[in-house]
Write a structure and sequence with these properties.
Elements: E1 22-24, H1 27-36, H2 43-63, H3 69-75, H4 80-107, H5 110-129, H6 134-161, H7 171-176, H8 178-199, H9 208-215, H10 217-230, H11 235-240, H12 244-255, E2 259-261, H13 280-283, H14 288-311, H15 314-322, H16 326-355, H17 357-378, H18 384-403, H19 405-415, H20 419-451, H21 455-472
Parallel strand pairs: 1-2
Length: 489
């Protein structure tokens, strides 16, 4: 396939490579060059950063309404049912978006899907900011959820396919970066709430939720503006489609690898290892992928259920422990997220090339089990010492989340499948994980009302299930060349 007919998008920025020519004859050669190259990366790092920008948007948009939902309910005179519909619209959109996005990521390519979902974010954020009623707001939040659901499969594909196989900054470390990015976005949403809370006059306090939701359009617009200069299609995906020339162009631009298509390369495009199809969702439950899918699914559902119950219930938990104002509650929530969840996520990125995702996930779930047992036994704290111990248990839970399952459930979802299945693999995982999140967010207030602090006994079952699944299925994706499975069929 000639350069003129190549369909793979290549970034316009990138220095001309000057090293030894690397001849490619197949998709396997492209994968090997990325996995084992020692060249200093150029645009590849920027591509990873832009993909993480998409993850940032996901987290920001999902959490942006947390402190404004009461104002929305008051402004539109919503019933509890109406409030729940507006609040949950984004998660329902994300469930649908993940299923569709996984298929499209494998079908039409990473670049096209990523750019399309950025427009979802812009349009939906602005529609939310100017929503005249609850119906427009709910519809816009659903569309925003579609963007969130579509984005994670493609973002994870970029992170995995623009990273080397082993060593510092390997595929597992790049994918794990989604976790501290997520916590950073949540923390920024808290900080934005504090800033607007401080500067908005009381007479315009009803603008708070609109400004928070509308701000989500800003990073999406920035990504759109820089996309053609720095963003490229995944070279492994392009090569898998038979576009060796496009893959070579991307390797030269993004990786500073002087790749050229060999003259003796097949004149006709290689047959794809596996054509994109809705049937590929079924392939996740066959052969070697069945065990991996079971493990990735159980750990993701368990992690999402426990984290959403604790993290999104954090303001309620803290205020009940300390009986403090909303401002104090926001500040304590922010501190816990930054000092423990975010720091745990950074440690996960640094240590996974050496320790592996399995050991770190086991350790993280163990921390969460201990924390939830502690919270259940403490119950409602009586006195300062018990309150401090309860906060310490919350901190341990969040640290375990960042260090273990928060980072590495996505590692399992992304790196358990080769390029031809990665989109549907992450899409399937995210569909079920979003469903677990929705159930968790719905059940948490119900369980709290019925059980009080006894709810921690119920939440404890989630990390326990994740821990047992890991002990039963010892699969380590970090450092394993899963993309080679496309070429050895």
């Amino acid at each position: 396939m000639s350069e003129l007919t190549s369909s793979a998008h290549v970034a316009t920025a990138g220095s001309a490579p000057t090293g030894e020519t690397q001849w490619i004859r197949s998709a396997s050669d492209v994968s090997n060059l990325i996995n084992h190259s020692d060249n200093a990366r150029n645009n590849a790092r920027i591509v990873v950063a832009i993909a993480l920008g998409g993850v940032f948007l996901d987290a920001y948009d999902l959490g942006a309404l947390a402190f404004g939902i009461k104002d929305v309910a008051r402004e539109f005179n919503l019933t509890p049912t109406g409030t729940g519909m507006v609040a949950s619209a984004i998660t329902f959109g994300a469930i649908v978006g993940a299923l569709i996005g996984g298929y499209l990521t494998d079908k039409i390519g990473r670049y096209r899907v990523f750019m399309a979902d950025m427009f979802f974010f812009v349009v939906a954020a602005l529609a939310c900011a100017f929503a005249p009623n609850e119906y427009v707001l709910g519809g816009a939040r659903f569309v925003m959820g579609l963007g969130v659901g579509i984005d994670l499969p493609v973002a994870m594909a970029f992170l995995a396919e623009f990273s080397k196989l082993r060593g510092k900054g390997n595929k597992a470390a790049s994918v794990a970066m989604w976790c501290p990015t997520w916590y950073a976005a949540i923390s920024i949403s808290y900080l934005l709430v504090l800033l607007l809370y401080a500067v908005l006059p009381e007479s315009h306090s009803d603008w708070l939720w609109r400004l928070i939701l509308g701000f989500g359009a800003v990073p999406a617009i920035l990504i759109i503006l820089i996309r053609s200069r720095y963003m490229s299609e995944s070279p492994v995906w392009a090569a898998n489609q038979g576009d060796l020339q496009g893959a070579a162009n991307i390797l030269r631009s993004a990786w500073n690898i002087n790749a050229q298509v060999a003259k003796d390369a097949p004149l006709t495009p290689e047959k794809p290892a596996r054509r994109a199809s809705w049937r590929n969702y079924g392939a996740l439950l066959q052969g070697v992928y069945l065990r991996r899918t079971v493990l990735a699914t159980i750990t993701s559902i368990a992690s999402a259920f426990a984290y959403n119950a604790v993290a999104f219930g954090l303001p309620v938990i803290i205020s009940s422990f300390l009986a403090q104002s909303m401002l104090t509650t926001i500040l304590v929530s922010l501190a816990l997220n930054l000092l423990f969840a975010f720091v745990g996520g950074i440690l996960a990125v640094r240590l996974v090339p050496r320790l592996g995702a399995w050991k770190m996930s086991v350790a993280g779930y163990a921390c969460q089990c201990i924390a939830l047992l502690g919270l259940a036994l403490i119950g409602r704290p009586e006195g300062g010492q018990e309150a401090a111990l309860a906060i310490a248990m919350l901190a341990l839970f969040l640290f375990g989340q960042g260090f273990g399952p928060g980072s590495h459930t996505m590692t399992y979802a992304s790196l358990s499948y080769p390029t031809s299945l990665r989109g549907v693999g992450v899409g399937f995982n995210q569909t079920l994980m979003r469903g677990s999140s929705t159930v968790s967010l719905f059940l948490f207030p119900v369980l709290v009302a019925a059980l009080g602090t006894g709810v921690f006994w119920v939440i404890f079952l989630a990390p326990l299930a994740g821990l047992l699944a890991l002990l039963a299925i010892r699969w380590e994706p970090s450092g394993y060349d899963v993309d080679a499975e496309d070429f050895n069929r």
